[in-house]
C-alpha cells in the first residue's frame, strides 16, 4: 500500500505529471503507477486542482488583456512559466 503523502507537490512531481498526462491523458491509474508516494485520489485531485487554477488564470489573463487593450496597448503582462506550461497542456486535451 502506498504511503499517504499529503505534502505539497514539488516542481519535479508537477513536471513529471504533465509529461505523463501528455502521454496517458486522464488515465490516472497508469499515471499513479509512476508515483510510488502518491495515491490515485491525489493524482486525480492534482489534475482537477491545476485545471481549475489554470482556467481561472486564463480567464483573468483574457480579462486583463481586454482591459489593457482598451486603455493602452504598450503595457506587457508578466506570466509565470509553470502556469503557461499548464495552460498549453490543458488546452490540448480539452
From TrEMBL:
Keywords: DNA-binding, Metal-binding, Nucleus, Zinc, Zinc-finger. Residues 1-55 form the HTH myb-type domain. GO terms for biological process: regulation of transcription by RNA polymerase II. GO terms for molecular function: DNA binding; transcription corepressor activity; zinc ion binding. The keyword Protease does not apply. Residues 51-94 are annotated as: Disordered. SMART domains: SANT. Residues 57-75 have a biased composition (Low complexity). Residues 7-55 form the SANT domain. One of its GO terms (cellular component) is transcription regulator complex. InterPro entries: Homeodomain-like_sf, Myb_dom, SANT/Myb, SANT_dom, Trans_reg/Corepressor. Residues 7-51 form the Myb-like domain. This is Uncharacterized protein.
Amino acid at each position: 500500500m502506498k504511503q499517504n503523502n499529503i505534502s505539497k507537490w514539488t516542481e519535479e512531481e508537477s513536471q513529471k505529471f504533465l509529461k505523463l498526462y501528455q502521454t496517458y491523458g486522464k488515465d490516472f491509474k497508469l499515471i499513479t503507477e509512476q508515483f510510488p508516494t502518491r495515491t490515485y485520489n491525489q493524482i486525480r485531485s492534482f489534475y482537477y486542482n491545476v485545471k481549475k487554477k489554470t482556467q481561472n488564470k486564463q480567464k483573468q489573463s483574457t480579462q486583463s488583456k481586454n482591459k489593457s487593450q482598451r486603455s493602452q496597448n504598450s503595457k506587457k503582462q508578466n506570466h509565470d512559466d509553470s502556469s503557461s506550461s499548464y495552460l498549453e497542456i490543458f488546452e490540448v486535451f480539452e
